[in-house]
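Reproducibility note. Readers wishing to regenerate the assembly model reported in the main text can use the exact inputs given here. Chain order matters: entities are listed in the order in which they were concatenated for prediction.
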Amino acid sequence: MVLLIVFVGIQLIPTKRNQSDEVLSSDILLTYIVPEDVQSILKTSCCDCHSNNTNYPWYNKIQPFSWILENHIEQGKAELNFSDFGSYSRRRQKSILKSMASQIEKGEMPLSSYTLIHRDAKIFENEKLILINWINNLRDSL
Amino acid sequence: MKKAIYLLAFIVLFLTACNIDKKRSNKNDLQSEETYKQKEGIQHHSSTELEKRSIESTTKKTATLEKIINSYLDLKNALVEDDAKKAAVAGKMMLSAFSSFEMLTLTEKQRKEYLEIAEDSKVHADHIMKSPIDHQREHFDVLSVNLDDLIALVGTEKHLYQIFCPMYNNGKGAIWISETEEIRNPYYGSKMLTCGKVQKEIK
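Running the prediction on these inputs yields the following structure tokens for the assembly.
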């Protein structure tokens, strides 16, 4: 009975929704050339936590899942936000790109807790190559 | 059964508290950064006067860069010793060294680049505080380039050496800055201590 009360109680706590239709001028897609295949991987595997527009699953409306998601999104955006990418300094962009390549190569990103639920977000070996090549080329060009 | 329910309720409430605290501390960080930027704006107006005095304050200027360099050297030496904990401490020192750097001693032109270097370096220093050693070394790679740029920008009275490790980064190589010509590799530590070559003397 107490469990039910607690469960209902925590549903009343409000959470932010990370959603925006607006494409900022600082969006990475408007700053650099991003090939279609790379865009597709970024959208499916990265943008939920690393942009201003999250594609929320149905269970997002239920606590404590809402908190967990909000936490991930907050942390993800603080590290890297593709919507703001163009506003970072060149030096910062280069640093981030380096980290991206390393973490994708090592399989540290996307998070396994994320790909467990979002099976389509898993990045396969050939996709890894495509992504890392693009990242390295962009970094070298800056 | 009852105990389990109370425990679960406690855990949920505890998690809520943690989340709120985290948000608060994030907000505080943001606020102090805003204040710092505002202060910087005020200092901007008196920069011409300060430039006249900058020749006299050379010692002060290089003394302040010294803190940053010292924290970097501590970090470098910790990585040489394969000591992630020591490296984390050095990362914290570096964070505070950048935060306490006296920007008044810089010209307007220098300030922009300094801020970019500082902003990026602080993120790396912060990550170093909470990463395993292989990640710390990745951040150290970028920090070494940043420090090299910073020294080129501001100058230093310290006698330093730029050393190149040809193998790191899948053979692309990486540099590090050292207080000594002696080769002690921070990227590989004990695994390959003497791999490297002095490329440049900084004085």
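We highlight two features of this model. Residues 35-141 of chain A form one domain. Chain A touches chain B through 19 residues (CB under 8 Å).
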